[in-house]
């Protein structure tokens, strides 16, 4: 009897481990034990890394961008201006997408068709949304790089400042830059950030890093694809705000 129970226990653990492995590595839903804040988001960025000619689906991109807003809202005041701009630009793009979902299935098609029609709302909104996503991407990537180098720095404000300098500072005037420098002081430290991303549970850094890597990689690929697209079609503007 004890041997039977022990065998069932071992077999059950094997099945559970196989289920968790399949969920994480094969793109399925993570188990409750390994779930993070990323698991609760409304969507993931399209996986366009494998095909250079693949376009970005508008609905998936907008859902994932909304997920970024939900994500960074948890991080405190430092991201408030970025969140405000992102929400406004997502609404602008969504409004145009709803006008003709069939013809605007892909972001690139919608931008070009709107530009050719003399409507630059989407062109401008997507440009600023992409820049905000680029900022978040660089911040996340700094955390990943820091972890890979086994530094595990607690003060993340230098990462935010560097990400801002690399992505948004060139487009902001003096007032905007000063405001951001002040807000960067409120950046959550590493421990608090990982606790938040772990759905306020302890000892889940491995799961958080797993999801952070995947999310950042996909977001970064979409951002770079849009950067290249804007340069190819001469859509980029460098006006300061």
Can you walk through the features of this model?
The chain is mainly alpha-helical and 241 residues long. The protein is 64% helix and 0% strand. The protein has 9 helices and no strands. The chain has helices at 2-25, 58-73, 80-99, 107-116, 121-148, 157-167, 174-183, 190-197, 205-232. It starts with a helix and ends in a 9-residue tail after the last helix. Residues 1-27 have low confidence and may be disordered.
Topology of this protein?
Elements: H1 2-25, H2 58-73, H3 80-99, H4 107-116, H5 121-148, H6 157-167, H7 174-183, H8 190-197, H9 205-232
Short description:
This protein has 241 residues and is mostly helical. It contains 9 helices and no strands. The longest helix is centred in the middle third of the chain and has 28 residues, at 121-148.
Q: DSSP strand (E) fraction?
A: under 5%
Radius of gyration over alpha carbons?
20 Å
Largest sheet: none
- Low-confidence segments, given as residue ranges, are 1-27
How many beta-strand segments? 0
**Euclidean distance between termini CA atoms:** 74 Å
Helix content: 55-70%
Mean pLDDT, nearest integer? 87
Q: List the total number of helices.
A: 9
Kindly name the structural category: mainly alpha
SSE pattern, N- to C-terminal: HHHHHHHHH
């Amino acid at each position: 009897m004890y041997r039977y129970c022990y065998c069932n226990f071992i077999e059950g653990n094997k099945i559970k481990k196989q289920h968790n492995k399949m969920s994480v590595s094969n793109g399925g839903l993570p188990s409750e034990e390994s779930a993070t804040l990323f698991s609760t988001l409304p969507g993931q960025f399209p996986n366009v890394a494998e095909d250079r000619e693949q376009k970005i689906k508008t609905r998936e991109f907008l859902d994932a961008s909304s997920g970024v807003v939900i994500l960074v809202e948890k991080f405190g005041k430092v991201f408030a201006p970025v969140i405000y701009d992102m929400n406004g630009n997502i609404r602008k793009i969504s409004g145009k997408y709803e006008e003709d979902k069939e013809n605007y299935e892909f972001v690139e098609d919608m931008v070009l068709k709107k530009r050719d029609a003399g409507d630059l709302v989407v062109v401008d909104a997507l440009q600023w949304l992409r820049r905000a996503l680029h900022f978040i991407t660089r911040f996340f990537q700094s955390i990943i790089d820091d972890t890979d180098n086994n530094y595990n720095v607690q003060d993340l404000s230098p990462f935010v400042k560097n990400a801002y300098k690399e992505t948004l500072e060139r487009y902001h005037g003096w007032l905007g830059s000063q405001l951001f420098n002040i807000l960067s002081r409120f950046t959550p430290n590493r421990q608090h950030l990982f606790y938040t991303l772990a759905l306020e549970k302890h000892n889940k850094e491995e799961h958080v890093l797993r999801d952070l890597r995947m999310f950042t990689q996909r977001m970064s690929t979409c951002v770079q694809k849009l950067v290249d697209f804007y340069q190819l079609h001469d859509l980029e503007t460098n006006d300061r705000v």
